[in-house]
Amino acid sequence: MTAARPLRALPAALLLMLGVMPAAEAREARTYYFGSDLSYVNEMEDCGATYSRDGKPEDVYALFKSSGANLVRLRLWNDPKWTAYSNLADVTNAMKRARAAGLPVLLDFHYSDDWADGDKQLVPAAWAHLSTDQQVEALYKFTYDTLMTLNAQGLMPDQVQVGNETNGEMMGSVTWKQGDPVKPINWERNARLFNAGIRAVKDAGAKAGKTPRIMIHIAQPENVEDWFLKATRAGIAGYDLIGISYYKKWSKMDMAGLGAVINRLRHTYPGKDIVVVETAYPYTDKHMDENVNLMGEDSTFPAYGFSPEGQARYLHDLMQLTLDNGGAGVVYWEPAWVSTQCKTRWGSGSNWENATFFDFTGKALPALDWPKAQYVYPVEMTFRVKDEGQSALFVSGDFTGGLAVPMTREKGWFVYRSWQRPGTSLLAGAAETPEALKDAPASEITVPTKAAVATLSTK
Predict the structure, then answer these.
(1) Which homologous superfamily is 31-372 in?
(2) Signal sequence: where (predicted)?
(3) Catalytic pick from 43, 169, 278, 353?
Protein backbone atom coordinates (compact mmCIF):
# COMPACT_ATOMS: atom_id res chain seq x y z
CA MET A 1 0.00 0.00 0.00
CA THR A 2 1.28 3.46 -0.85
CA ALA A 3 2.25 5.49 2.19
CA ALA A 4 -0.06 8.37 3.01
CA ARG A 5 1.10 11.78 1.98
CA PRO A 6 1.05 14.72 4.41
CA LEU A 7 -2.45 16.00 5.13
CA ARG A 8 -3.30 18.70 2.66
CA ALA A 9 -6.05 19.96 0.45
CA LEU A 10 -5.78 19.04 -3.21
CA PRO A 11 -5.00 21.83 -5.67
CA ALA A 12 -7.76 23.34 -7.72
CA ALA A 13 -6.80 21.39 -10.84
CA LEU A 14 -9.54 18.81 -10.31
CA LEU A 15 -11.20 17.06 -13.22
CA LEU A 16 -14.92 16.61 -13.66
CA MET A 17 -16.24 13.98 -16.03
CA LEU A 18 -19.86 14.47 -17.03
CA GLY A 19 -21.53 11.54 -18.76
CA VAL A 20 -25.05 12.93 -18.83
CA MET A 21 -28.20 11.46 -20.39
CA PRO A 22 -31.45 13.30 -21.07
CA ALA A 23 -33.99 13.03 -18.28
CA ALA A 24 -36.12 10.38 -20.01
CA GLU A 25 -33.11 8.14 -20.58
CA ALA A 26 -31.88 8.73 -17.05
CA ARG A 27 -35.18 7.45 -15.67
CA GLU A 28 -34.71 4.17 -17.53
CA ALA A 29 -31.29 3.78 -15.96
CA ARG A 30 -32.76 3.70 -12.44
CA THR A 31 -35.92 2.36 -10.87
CA TYR A 32 -38.18 4.89 -9.18
CA TYR A 33 -41.10 3.83 -7.01
CA PHE A 34 -44.57 5.33 -7.24
CA GLY A 35 -46.33 3.27 -4.63
CA SER A 36 -49.46 2.99 -2.50
CA ASP A 37 -50.24 0.97 0.62
CA LEU A 38 -53.47 -0.89 -0.18
CA SER A 39 -53.65 -3.03 2.96
CA TYR A 40 -57.20 -1.88 3.79
CA VAL A 41 -58.70 -2.60 0.36
CA ASN A 42 -60.04 -6.12 0.98
CA GLU A 43 -61.71 -5.04 4.22
CA MET A 44 -63.18 -1.90 2.69
CA GLU A 45 -64.64 -3.81 -0.24
CA ASP A 46 -66.13 -6.40 2.11
CA CYS A 47 -67.76 -3.42 3.85
CA GLY A 48 -69.28 -2.21 0.57
CA ALA A 49 -66.71 0.32 -0.67
CA THR A 50 -66.37 0.90 -4.39
CA TYR A 51 -63.71 2.78 -6.35
CA SER A 52 -64.14 4.49 -9.70
CA ARG A 53 -63.02 7.23 -12.04
CA ASP A 54 -66.43 8.14 -13.46
CA GLY A 55 -68.93 6.53 -11.10
CA LYS A 56 -68.69 3.01 -12.54
CA PRO A 57 -66.96 0.66 -10.04
CA GLU A 58 -63.59 -0.68 -11.19
CA ASP A 59 -61.08 -3.15 -9.83
CA VAL A 60 -59.03 -1.00 -7.50
CA TYR A 61 -55.73 -2.68 -8.34
CA ALA A 62 -56.32 -2.14 -12.05
CA LEU A 63 -57.26 1.44 -11.23
CA PHE A 64 -53.95 2.06 -9.49
CA LYS A 65 -52.06 0.31 -12.28
CA SER A 66 -53.67 2.59 -14.85
CA SER A 67 -52.68 5.60 -12.72
CA GLY A 68 -49.01 4.78 -13.23
CA ALA A 69 -48.38 3.16 -9.84
CA ASN A 70 -45.61 0.57 -9.89
CA LEU A 71 -45.60 -0.73 -6.31
CA VAL A 72 -48.22 -1.95 -3.83
CA ARG A 73 -47.35 -2.17 -0.14
CA LEU A 74 -49.15 -4.70 2.08
CA ARG A 75 -48.80 -5.16 5.85
CA LEU A 76 -48.63 -8.56 7.55
CA TRP A 77 -49.36 -9.26 11.21
CA ASN A 78 -48.39 -12.54 12.85
CA ASP A 79 -51.67 -13.68 14.43
CA PRO A 80 -54.16 -10.79 14.62
CA LYS A 81 -57.07 -12.44 16.42
CA TRP A 82 -58.84 -9.08 16.70
CA THR A 83 -59.32 -8.80 12.90
CA ALA A 84 -59.71 -11.08 9.89
CA TYR A 85 -57.41 -8.89 7.81
CA SER A 86 -53.67 -8.37 7.30
CA ASN A 87 -53.04 -12.02 8.18
CA LEU A 88 -51.39 -14.39 5.71
CA ALA A 89 -54.67 -15.44 4.06
CA ASP A 90 -55.70 -11.82 3.48
CA VAL A 91 -52.26 -10.82 2.24
CA THR A 92 -52.20 -13.80 -0.12
CA ASN A 93 -55.51 -12.69 -1.60
CA ALA A 94 -54.25 -9.13 -1.99
CA MET A 95 -50.99 -10.25 -3.58
CA LYS A 96 -52.89 -12.33 -6.14
CA ARG A 97 -54.91 -9.27 -7.06
CA ALA A 98 -51.80 -7.11 -7.32
CA ARG A 99 -50.04 -9.65 -9.51
CA ALA A 100 -53.10 -9.96 -11.75
CA ALA A 101 -52.93 -6.21 -12.28
CA GLY A 102 -49.18 -6.33 -12.98
CA LEU A 103 -48.17 -4.53 -9.78
CA PRO A 104 -45.02 -5.46 -7.82
CA VAL A 105 -45.47 -5.94 -4.06
CA LEU A 106 -43.64 -4.67 -0.98
CA LEU A 107 -44.54 -7.01 1.91
CA ASP A 108 -44.35 -5.27 5.28
CA PHE A 109 -43.63 -7.65 8.20
CA HIS A 110 -44.73 -5.92 11.43
CA TYR A 111 -43.58 -8.85 13.61
CA SER A 112 -46.56 -8.17 15.85
CA ASP A 113 -50.19 -9.27 16.23
CA ASP A 114 -51.21 -5.61 16.11
CA TRP A 115 -49.88 -2.28 14.87
CA ALA A 116 -46.12 -1.87 15.20
CA ASP A 117 -45.11 1.76 14.75
CA GLY A 118 -42.80 4.50 15.95
CA ASP A 119 -44.41 4.49 19.41
CA LYS A 120 -44.60 0.75 20.05
CA GLN A 121 -43.13 -2.57 18.94
CA LEU A 122 -45.34 -5.26 20.49
CA VAL A 123 -44.01 -8.80 20.58
CA PRO A 124 -46.42 -11.41 19.12
CA ALA A 125 -48.29 -13.20 21.91
CA ALA A 126 -46.90 -16.58 20.88
CA TRP A 127 -43.34 -15.28 21.28
CA ALA A 128 -43.79 -13.13 24.39
CA HIS A 129 -42.30 -15.58 26.85
CA LEU A 130 -39.52 -16.94 24.67
CA SER A 131 -35.86 -16.24 25.34
CA THR A 132 -33.97 -13.97 22.96
CA ASP A 133 -32.40 -17.00 21.30
CA GLN A 134 -35.83 -18.51 20.77
CA GLN A 135 -37.29 -15.23 19.48
CA VAL A 136 -34.47 -14.91 16.97
CA GLU A 137 -35.21 -18.44 15.77
CA ALA A 138 -38.97 -17.81 15.68
CA LEU A 139 -38.59 -14.58 13.70
CA TYR A 140 -36.33 -16.29 11.19
CA LYS A 141 -38.71 -19.24 10.76
CA PHE A 142 -41.83 -17.06 10.48
CA THR A 143 -40.19 -14.91 7.80
CA TYR A 144 -38.76 -17.83 5.86
CA ASP A 145 -41.91 -19.97 6.04
CA THR A 146 -44.16 -17.07 5.04
CA LEU A 147 -42.06 -16.28 1.99
CA MET A 148 -41.81 -19.92 0.92
CA THR A 149 -45.58 -20.33 1.33
CA LEU A 150 -46.13 -17.33 -0.92
CA ASN A 151 -43.50 -18.51 -3.37
CA ALA A 152 -45.26 -21.86 -3.73
CA GLN A 153 -48.18 -19.89 -5.17
CA GLY A 154 -45.99 -17.79 -7.43
CA LEU A 155 -46.23 -14.82 -5.07
CA MET A 156 -42.70 -14.13 -3.85
CA PRO A 157 -42.78 -10.38 -3.09
CA ASP A 158 -40.49 -7.98 -4.90
CA GLN A 159 -39.53 -6.19 -1.68
CA VAL A 160 -39.74 -7.09 2.00
CA GLN A 161 -39.76 -4.83 5.03
CA VAL A 162 -38.02 -6.35 8.04
CA GLY A 163 -40.11 -4.50 10.62
CA ASN A 164 -42.39 -1.48 10.47
CA GLU A 165 -41.38 1.94 11.84
CA THR A 166 -38.88 0.23 14.12
CA ASN A 167 -37.79 3.35 16.01
CA GLY A 168 -37.89 1.38 19.24
CA GLU A 169 -36.46 -2.05 19.89
CA MET A 170 -38.05 -4.67 17.67
CA MET A 171 -40.61 -6.71 19.67
CA GLY A 172 -39.50 -4.68 22.66
CA SER A 173 -42.80 -4.54 24.58
CA VAL A 174 -45.37 -7.06 25.78
CA THR A 175 -48.02 -4.42 26.58
CA TRP A 176 -48.38 -0.74 25.69
CA LYS A 177 -50.70 2.15 26.36
CA GLN A 178 -50.73 5.68 24.99
CA GLY A 179 -48.01 7.78 26.57
CA ASP A 180 -45.75 4.94 27.64
CA PRO A 181 -42.10 6.03 27.35
CA VAL A 182 -39.92 4.38 24.73
CA LYS A 183 -37.43 2.09 26.41
CA PRO A 184 -33.71 2.29 25.57
CA ILE A 185 -32.79 -0.12 22.79
CA ASN A 186 -30.77 -3.22 23.58
CA TRP A 187 -28.76 -3.06 20.37
CA GLU A 188 -27.22 -6.49 20.75
CA ARG A 189 -30.69 -8.08 20.84
CA ASN A 190 -32.07 -5.68 18.23
CA ALA A 191 -29.30 -6.50 15.77
CA ARG A 192 -29.80 -10.23 16.22
CA LEU A 193 -33.51 -9.91 15.43
CA PHE A 194 -32.99 -7.69 12.38
CA ASN A 195 -30.22 -9.85 11.01
CA ALA A 196 -32.36 -12.96 11.49
CA GLY A 197 -35.10 -11.40 9.39
CA ILE A 198 -32.65 -10.25 6.73
CA ARG A 199 -31.02 -13.68 6.63
CA ALA A 200 -34.43 -15.35 6.30
CA VAL A 201 -35.34 -13.20 3.28
CA LYS A 202 -32.03 -13.98 1.62
CA ASP A 203 -32.27 -17.71 2.35
CA ALA A 204 -35.84 -17.89 1.05
CA GLY A 205 -34.84 -15.91 -2.01
CA ALA A 206 -31.91 -18.21 -2.71
CA LYS A 207 -34.18 -21.25 -2.39
CA ALA A 208 -36.85 -19.70 -4.62
CA GLY A 209 -34.48 -18.24 -7.19
CA LYS A 210 -35.81 -14.73 -6.59
CA THR A 211 -34.55 -12.62 -3.68
CA PRO A 212 -36.71 -9.65 -2.66
CA ARG A 213 -35.04 -6.32 -1.99
CA ILE A 214 -34.93 -5.71 1.77
CA MET A 215 -36.05 -2.50 3.48
CA ILE A 216 -35.59 -1.19 7.02
CA HIS A 217 -38.13 1.47 7.97
CA ILE A 218 -37.98 4.30 10.54
CA ALA A 219 -40.69 6.86 11.33
CA GLN A 220 -40.02 10.57 10.74
CA PRO A 221 -36.80 11.87 9.14
CA GLU A 222 -35.43 13.46 12.33
CA ASN A 223 -35.02 9.96 13.80
CA VAL A 224 -33.46 8.18 10.85
CA GLU A 225 -29.79 9.15 10.83
CA ASP A 226 -29.14 8.46 14.50
CA TRP A 227 -30.97 5.13 14.30
CA PHE A 228 -28.99 3.88 11.30
CA LEU A 229 -25.70 5.04 12.81
CA LYS A 230 -26.37 2.96 15.91
CA ALA A 231 -27.72 0.07 13.83
CA THR A 232 -24.58 0.02 11.70
CA ARG A 233 -22.38 0.02 14.78
CA ALA A 234 -24.44 -2.87 16.16
CA GLY A 235 -23.83 -4.90 13.01
CA ILE A 236 -27.17 -4.69 11.20
CA ALA A 237 -26.32 -5.25 7.55
CA GLY A 238 -27.51 -6.82 4.31
CA TYR A 239 -30.50 -4.56 3.56
CA ASP A 240 -31.05 -2.67 0.29
CA LEU A 241 -33.45 0.15 1.05
CA ILE A 242 -33.97 2.74 3.78
CA GLY A 243 -37.63 3.57 4.30
CA ILE A 244 -38.80 6.80 5.95
CA SER A 245 -42.26 7.78 7.18
CA TYR A 246 -42.96 11.48 6.67
CA TYR A 247 -46.13 13.04 8.05
CA LYS A 248 -46.25 16.76 8.72
CA LYS A 249 -48.51 16.05 11.71
CA TRP A 250 -45.85 13.99 13.49
CA SER A 251 -42.56 15.28 12.09
CA LYS A 252 -40.50 18.18 13.42
CA MET A 253 -38.99 18.75 9.96
CA ASP A 254 -40.30 20.68 7.00
CA MET A 255 -39.99 19.25 3.50
CA ALA A 256 -36.59 20.86 2.95
CA GLY A 257 -35.35 19.13 6.09
CA LEU A 258 -36.60 15.80 4.77
CA GLY A 259 -34.73 16.42 1.52
CA ALA A 260 -31.51 17.13 3.38
CA VAL A 261 -31.87 13.88 5.35
CA ILE A 262 -32.41 11.89 2.14
CA ASN A 263 -29.31 13.48 0.61
CA ARG A 264 -27.11 12.71 3.61
CA LEU A 265 -28.41 9.16 3.88
CA ARG A 266 -27.62 8.27 0.29
CA HIS A 267 -24.08 9.54 0.77
CA THR A 268 -23.61 7.91 4.16
CA TYR A 269 -24.96 4.56 2.94
CA PRO A 270 -23.90 4.25 -0.70
CA GLY A 271 -25.76 1.59 -2.61
CA LYS A 272 -28.90 1.93 -0.47
CA ASP A 273 -32.03 3.34 -2.07
CA ILE A 274 -33.91 5.88 0.05
CA VAL A 275 -37.71 5.76 -0.13
CA VAL A 276 -40.37 7.84 1.60
CA VAL A 277 -42.38 4.70 2.26
CA GLU A 278 -45.22 6.37 4.15
CA THR A 279 -46.82 9.77 3.70
CA ALA A 280 -50.32 11.25 3.37
CA TYR A 281 -52.07 14.57 2.86
CA PRO A 282 -55.72 15.59 3.46
CA TYR A 283 -57.76 16.96 0.57
CA THR A 284 -60.57 18.29 2.80
CA ASP A 285 -61.34 19.12 6.42
CA LYS A 286 -64.84 17.61 6.09
CA HIS A 287 -65.96 14.12 7.16
CA MET A 288 -68.99 11.91 6.55
CA ASP A 289 -68.88 9.53 9.53
CA GLU A 290 -68.52 9.64 13.31
CA ASN A 291 -64.82 8.82 13.24
CA VAL A 292 -62.51 11.75 13.94
CA ASN A 293 -60.14 12.32 11.03
CA LEU A 294 -56.50 11.93 11.97
CA MET A 295 -55.42 14.26 9.18
CA GLY A 296 -56.47 17.77 10.19
CA GLU A 297 -55.07 21.28 9.77
CA ASP A 298 -51.93 20.15 11.60
CA SER A 299 -51.28 17.86 8.62
CA THR A 300 -51.34 20.59 5.98
CA PHE A 301 -48.85 23.09 4.57
CA PRO A 302 -49.88 26.67 3.66
CA ALA A 303 -48.69 26.09 0.11
CA TYR A 304 -51.25 23.31 -0.44
CA GLY A 305 -54.09 23.95 2.02
CA PHE A 306 -57.16 21.71 1.97
CA SER A 307 -58.10 20.79 -1.59
CA PRO A 308 -57.89 17.86 -4.00
CA GLU A 309 -55.52 19.91 -6.15
CA GLY A 310 -53.37 20.72 -3.11
CA GLN A 311 -53.16 17.03 -2.20
CA ALA A 312 -51.98 16.20 -5.74
CA ARG A 313 -49.42 19.04 -5.73
CA TYR A 314 -48.06 17.91 -2.36
CA LEU A 315 -47.42 14.43 -3.72
CA HIS A 316 -45.82 15.80 -6.89
CA ASP A 317 -43.56 18.15 -4.95
CA LEU A 318 -42.63 15.45 -2.43
CA MET A 319 -41.63 13.10 -5.24
CA GLN A 320 -39.64 15.83 -6.97
CA LEU A 321 -37.92 16.66 -3.68
CA THR A 322 -37.05 12.99 -3.28
CA LEU A 323 -35.64 12.79 -6.82
CA ASP A 324 -33.65 16.01 -6.41
CA ASN A 325 -31.96 14.62 -3.30
CA GLY A 326 -31.08 11.24 -4.76
CA GLY A 327 -34.02 9.26 -3.36
CA ALA A 328 -35.77 6.42 -5.15
CA GLY A 329 -39.47 6.97 -4.59
CA VAL A 330 -42.58 7.63 -2.53
CA VAL A 331 -45.30 5.31 -1.20
CA TYR A 332 -48.63 6.81 -0.10
CA TRP A 333 -50.22 5.32 2.99
CA GLU A 334 -53.76 3.98 2.65
CA PRO A 335 -55.22 5.97 -0.27
CA ALA A 336 -58.20 3.55 -0.34
CA TRP A 337 -59.20 3.60 3.36
CA VAL A 338 -62.56 5.22 2.60
CA SER A 339 -65.56 5.49 4.87
CA THR A 340 -68.01 2.56 5.04
CA GLN A 341 -70.73 1.32 7.38
CA CYS A 342 -68.30 -1.06 9.07
CA LYS A 343 -66.82 -0.40 12.48
CA THR A 344 -63.19 -0.32 13.47
CA ARG A 345 -61.89 -0.23 17.03
CA TRP A 346 -62.07 3.56 16.73
CA GLY A 347 -65.69 3.78 15.61
CA SER A 348 -67.84 3.53 12.47
CA GLY A 349 -66.26 4.51 9.19
CA SER A 350 -62.70 5.67 8.60
CA ASN A 351 -60.20 7.95 10.35
CA TRP A 352 -58.57 8.51 6.97
CA GLU A 353 -61.46 9.32 4.62
CA ASN A 354 -60.22 12.88 4.01
CA ALA A 355 -56.72 11.71 3.06
CA THR A 356 -57.63 9.04 0.49
CA PHE A 357 -57.47 9.35 -3.29
CA PHE A 358 -61.28 9.11 -3.52
CA ASP A 359 -64.07 11.50 -2.60
CA PHE A 360 -66.95 10.53 -0.33
CA THR A 361 -68.75 8.83 -3.27
CA GLY A 362 -65.73 6.70 -4.20
CA LYS A 363 -64.79 8.75 -7.26
CA ALA A 364 -61.08 9.24 -7.94
CA LEU A 365 -59.41 12.55 -7.09
CA PRO A 366 -56.51 14.14 -9.02
CA ALA A 367 -53.94 12.67 -6.59
CA LEU A 368 -54.62 9.16 -7.94
CA ASP A 369 -52.68 10.08 -11.07
CA TRP A 370 -49.66 11.59 -9.31
CA PRO A 371 -47.28 9.06 -10.94
CA LYS A 372 -48.22 10.46 -14.35
CA ALA A 373 -47.28 14.04 -13.49
CA GLN A 374 -44.24 15.69 -15.07
CA TYR A 375 -41.00 15.22 -13.14
CA VAL A 376 -37.42 16.30 -13.70
CA TYR A 377 -35.43 13.11 -13.38
CA PRO A 378 -31.81 13.21 -12.20
CA VAL A 379 -28.85 12.57 -14.46
CA GLU A 380 -25.58 10.91 -13.54
CA MET A 381 -22.40 12.92 -13.04
CA THR A 382 -18.94 11.62 -12.26
CA PHE A 383 -16.32 13.61 -10.35
CA ARG A 384 -12.75 12.39 -11.01
CA VAL A 385 -9.34 13.14 -9.53
CA LYS A 386 -6.11 11.63 -10.90
CA ASP A 387 -4.72 8.83 -8.76
CA GLU A 388 -1.20 9.95 -7.88
CA GLY A 389 -0.62 7.49 -5.06
CA GLN A 390 -2.78 9.09 -2.42
CA SER A 391 -3.86 6.70 0.32
CA ALA A 392 -7.48 7.89 0.01
CA LEU A 393 -9.48 10.84 -1.28
CA PHE A 394 -12.71 12.40 -0.12
CA VAL A 395 -15.12 14.70 -1.94
CA SER A 396 -17.40 17.21 -0.27
CA GLY A 397 -19.78 19.91 -1.37
CA ASP A 398 -23.26 21.27 -1.06
CA PHE A 399 -24.47 18.23 -3.02
CA THR A 400 -23.13 15.83 -0.35
CA GLY A 401 -24.91 17.69 2.42
CA GLY A 402 -21.52 18.81 3.70
CA LEU A 403 -20.39 15.22 4.29
CA ALA A 404 -16.88 14.12 3.28
CA VAL A 405 -17.58 11.15 1.02
CA PRO A 406 -14.85 8.60 0.22
CA MET A 407 -14.00 8.34 -3.48
CA THR A 408 -13.38 4.97 -5.11
CA ARG A 409 -10.28 3.93 -7.09
CA GLU A 410 -10.97 3.11 -10.73
CA LYS A 411 -8.30 2.66 -13.43
CA GLY A 412 -5.95 5.43 -12.40
CA TRP A 413 -8.59 7.77 -11.01
CA PHE A 414 -10.37 8.49 -7.79
CA VAL A 415 -14.07 8.59 -8.69
CA TYR A 416 -17.26 9.92 -7.12
CA ARG A 417 -20.57 9.30 -8.90
CA SER A 418 -23.83 11.01 -8.14
CA TRP A 419 -27.30 11.54 -9.56
CA GLN A 420 -28.21 15.22 -9.75
CA ARG A 421 -30.99 17.38 -11.11
CA PRO A 422 -30.08 18.65 -14.60
CA GLY A 423 -28.84 22.23 -14.61
CA THR A 424 -28.00 22.25 -10.91
CA SER A 425 -24.98 24.32 -9.90
CA LEU A 426 -22.78 22.49 -7.42
CA LEU A 427 -19.84 23.49 -5.28
CA ALA A 428 -17.23 20.75 -4.94
CA GLY A 429 -13.88 20.18 -3.30
CA ALA A 430 -11.65 17.16 -2.70
CA ALA A 431 -8.98 16.30 -0.15
CA GLU A 432 -6.95 13.40 1.19
CA THR A 433 -8.74 13.56 4.54
CA PRO A 434 -12.12 14.92 5.60
CA GLU A 435 -10.39 17.45 7.86
CA ALA A 436 -8.45 18.92 4.97
CA LEU A 437 -11.61 19.79 3.05
CA LYS A 438 -12.16 22.90 5.10
CA ASP A 439 -9.19 24.44 3.28
CA ALA A 440 -9.89 22.94 -0.14
CA PRO A 441 -10.66 25.30 -3.01
CA ALA A 442 -14.29 25.13 -4.08
CA SER A 443 -15.12 24.56 -7.74
CA GLU A 444 -18.49 25.34 -9.26
CA ILE A 445 -20.03 22.64 -11.42
CA THR A 446 -23.12 22.91 -13.57
CA VAL A 447 -24.82 19.67 -14.55
CA PRO A 448 -25.86 20.03 -18.22
CA THR A 449 -29.51 19.79 -19.19
CA LYS A 450 -28.76 18.09 -22.50
CA ALA A 451 -26.93 14.90 -23.43
CA ALA A 452 -23.21 15.51 -23.25
CA VAL A 453 -19.91 13.85 -22.50
CA ALA A 454 -17.15 16.23 -21.57
CA THR A 455 -14.03 16.49 -19.49
CA LEU A 456 -13.82 19.86 -17.80
CA SER A 457 -11.04 21.48 -15.80
CA THR A 458 -12.14 23.23 -12.63
CA LYS A 459 -9.19 25.62 -12.67
Answers:
(1) Glycosidases (3.20.20.80)
(2) 1-26
(3) 278
